[in-house]
Amino acid sequence: MAGLPSKGRRRTQMWMIQGTDARQVAFSKRRSGLFKKASELCTLCAVETALVVFSPGGKAFSFGQPGVDTSMNRLAYCGKPDFAAIRRAEAKQEAILRQLNKEYSDLLKKVEAEKIRGEQLEQMRLESQSQGQSLVDRPINELNPEELLTLKSMMEELKEKLRKRMQELSVEPAASTPMSTEESNASPGGSTKGDSSADPHDHDVLHEH
Fold first, then answer.
1. Residue pLDDT, tens place only, 105-127
2. Local structure of 192: helix, strand or coil
């Protein structure tokens, strides 16, 4: 025999319970179930919970984990900006920004001063060359501070060039090989061993006499 078709789970129609006593009974039952579900949620998910419900008679009932006051205090301060900390952070950032701006301004001034000084030195060098008078030929006591700095730079550059040239000369091979001791002691006329270059007939002539 075929079974009857299931009607499925039917939804319970929700509306306010008529009668004060009936509502109070339903509230007591549902409240206990609600608090039990909240406790299970805290245990399973390790969360904090705070529930506050008022009975039809106006009496308050609460449940909290770890406590209602703790959870409510956290809710009160959650997301609330700390204006004092914000002001302190802004003041610190402004101080750092002012210091960086000052350092940047000082660097710009130094760069500009060095640029002007370089242009002045270059102008002085060109003027000195155009007049045909080198700083090296002028007396030291007649040079101003800028000219002394220019002369110092020229001397340092010349010193570096001399050092490099001396290193190059020190590694170059010798132009010629020195003579050996035997060749330097040899006579211009030939070998010095004995008197073999003399005429052999001289001995015979002396013997006959």
1. 999 999 999 999 888 888 877 77
2. coil
